[in-house]
Amino acid sequence: MSGDIQSLIDSLVKDVERHQDLYYKRAMPEISDMEYDAMFNRLLELEKKYPQYARQDSPTKRVGSDLDNKFPEVSHPVPMLSLDKLYVPEELEEWIGKIERDNEEELSLLVEEKVDGSTIVLHYEAGFLVRAVTRGDGYTGNDITENVQTIRDIPLSLPEPVTAVFRGEIYINIDDFNALNKDKENIYANPRNFSAGCLRRKKSSEVSGIPLRSFVYEWFSGKRQEGGPGPGSAVPPDGGHSGLHIEVLHRMTQLGFNVWPDIGFFSSPLVQEKYEEMFKAHPGWVRRSLNDISDYIDRKMGKRESLGYEIDGLVVKVNDYKTRIKMGHTSHHPRWAIAFKFKAPQAVSKIQCIETQVGRTGRVTPVARIEPVRISGSTVSNVTLHNQDYCTSLDIAVGDVVAVSRRGDVIPAVEEVLEKNEKGNKTYLINRNCPSCGTALVPDGAHIFCPNSNCPARVFGRISFFTSRGQMDIENLGSETIKRLLELGLIADIPDIYYFDPDALLGVEGFGEKKIQLIKDGIKRSKKKPYDVVLASLGLDDIGPKAVELLIDDGYGSIGVGQYSQDYGRL
Fold it and tell me: What is the pLDDT of residue 236?
């Protein structure tokens, strides 16, 4: 029994850390926010029920990290934590009710949009922007000042000599994202991934031409809070406000920051009267009683597609800083704020066929090709079915009419079968042999794998992963180009990238002298990557950032980028 619990906790820790890495560092999420939250909460429940098996390095004890060793690290003056999440209106009502019961002061709340972007922490000294830092692990972030200085709506200087720290979100409008993304070979899945990728570029000149935007939503003291009550408690003494968040937001607009244009303020009429003049200056801000929050959230859900930028929920915050201090925080999130996440929007479509794909690790995944349908502004025609258990639980077959969503506004998913097919097609079963090489498939847990490391699909996946963003990032060597190189026999695996002659592509359709030179330049630049990046880019099983550090310390770090096969054999 004890061994089973420990194994389950260890497995969940590994899965949560993997998906944190995909989301925060690589901007390549594989599961929806709701699926991640369910996994995270399952781990949290087990740790509470069996504290003797909880690990000291558990991800429940910290926020997800986007720390990148390409940029210098900077300590935050106060913890930049995550948010606890709710998905059901009744849970939000319970959360508000508990705050009212636990506090004698009259409660007022604000509801702000949860923009799907990248967190930024802005440091100002005497009114000048001196540092811009990512959230990182909540306690330490990466210094990306030069990139942030190119974002036009972030003030380089303030009209007053303020020394303080501001927290905000960097994002890109949907129309700008679509325009910039459409001609790229390696397209980004969504605006959030795009903005996150831009902020991690090494050259600020590459960021300056991208129309990134910002909203700023918190103001902290510039002094480091050692052992203080936590985020939101460090209200600047020179802020010119009385310790209420609504006044902080108004004050930040006076300093030149963009704040949410549509904020909901919920309190008694008596409290609202105090801010009559302030609301005149912000016609988009809404005043209502606490009983109107649910109705406000419903209306915001209906308007989200008309905003021009992506939001994946709303954030409900306590207005009074004294109450925030009293409520405190955990190591993961403040107790005075909660994120209400939107349910994934759905549409109806029909399964045209089901194919199986083989990834670089050999994992075989069924994918449904559906009649194209629009969801949240995007056209969906392919939907992952994950594994055989998923197909069986849905009783899904070709020809079925299904409800399709974009979970977390990112990942297409079949939610349920609405109508069975008329042809009598039975539940889809994955073939026993690899669709790429014919090798007999091997089950491992909930998934099945092709064990053949030379499988063409696995080779393609390995090379594509190696060259992708977040790995070696070899520009102009995207999936379509790799596919063509394999077809022509110019490369057979990762080492060949550094030995084949790109000039051999002359005369091949789609490859002119300019494109060939760009491929050469991209390969040449990749040779300067540090060895830890090279090793992680190989995609070896269980070799994440921590394992890479240990291997390098143990002597796996003395070979050149084009000689990876020697290390592959040793590993």
Answer: 40
The mean per-residue pLDDT over the stretch 192-197 comes to: 82
Q: Express each pLDDT in 162-175 by its tens digit.
A: 999 999 999 999 88
Architecture of domain 73-341 in this structure: 2-Layer Sandwich (3.30)
- Alpha-carbon distance of 454 to 49, in angstroms, equals 45
* Region 86-108 average pLDDT: 88
- Distance set, CA 341 to CA 152, 199, 300, 311, 345 (Å): 29, 25, 12, 9, 12
Residues 532, 472: Cα–Cα separation, whole Å: 10
Q: pTM for the full model?
A: 0.62
Asked if 265 contacts 108 with a C-beta cutoff of 8 angstroms, the reply is yes
Average pLDDT, the chain: 83
Beta carbons of 271 and 110 less than 8 angstroms apart: no
Q: Which residues does the annotation mark as catalytic?
A: 114
Give the separation between CA 563 and CA 567, rounded to whole angstroms.
8
* Per-residue pLDDT tens over the stretch 124-144: 999 999 999 999 888 899 999
Distance (Å, rounded) from C-alpha 207 to C-alpha 196?
A: 11
- Token pair for 78: 């106060």
User: Is the per-residue pLDDT at 238 higher than 60?
Assistant: no
In the structure, what pLDDT confidence band is assigned to residue 24 with cuts at 50, 70 and 90? low
CATH of domain 456-570: 1.10.150.20
Q: Using one digit for the tens of pLDDT, what is the confidence trace for 428-476? A: 999 999 999 999 999 988 889 999 999 999 999 999 999 987 788 898 8
CA-to-CA distance for 217 and 212, rounded, in angstroms? 17
CB 137 within 8 A of CB 143: no
Vertex 52 angle, CA 51 and 55, to 5°: 80
- What the block records as the tokens of 141 is 């972030």
Res 562 pLDDT > 70: no
Classify domain 2-61 at the CATH topology level: Helix Hairpins (1.10.287)
pLDDT at res. 29: 67
Residue 314: is its pLDDT beyond 50? yes
Is residue 113 within 8 Å of 150, Cβ to Cβ? no
Angle, to 10 degrees, between the axis of helix 479-487 and the axis of helix 456-467?
140
Distances from the Cα of 410 to the Cα of 254, 335, 378, 394, 461, angstroms:
35, 28, 10, 21, 21
Q: Residue 266 and residue 218: Cα distance in Å, rounded?
A: 18
Give the residue from 16, 36, 24, 22 showing the smallest Cα distance to 408.
Answer: 36
Can you tell me whether residue 47 is helix, strand or coil?
helix
Contacts of 224 (CB under 8 A, 6+ apart): 75, 77, 78
In the Cβ-directed half-sphere of 432, how many Cα atoms lie within 13 Å? 1
CATH class of the 346-435 domain in this structure: mainly beta
- Of 81-85, 108-112, 423-427, highest mean pLDDT: 108-112
Domain spans, the chain: 2-61, 73-341, 346-435, 456-570
Q: What is the pLDDT of residue 143?
A: 93
Is the Cα torsion angle 8, 14, 18, 19 positive or negative in sign?
Answer: positive
Q: At what angle do helices 293-303 and 89-102 cross, to 10 degrees?
A: 140
Shortest CA distance to 348 belongs to which of 371, 367, 382, 378? Answer: 371
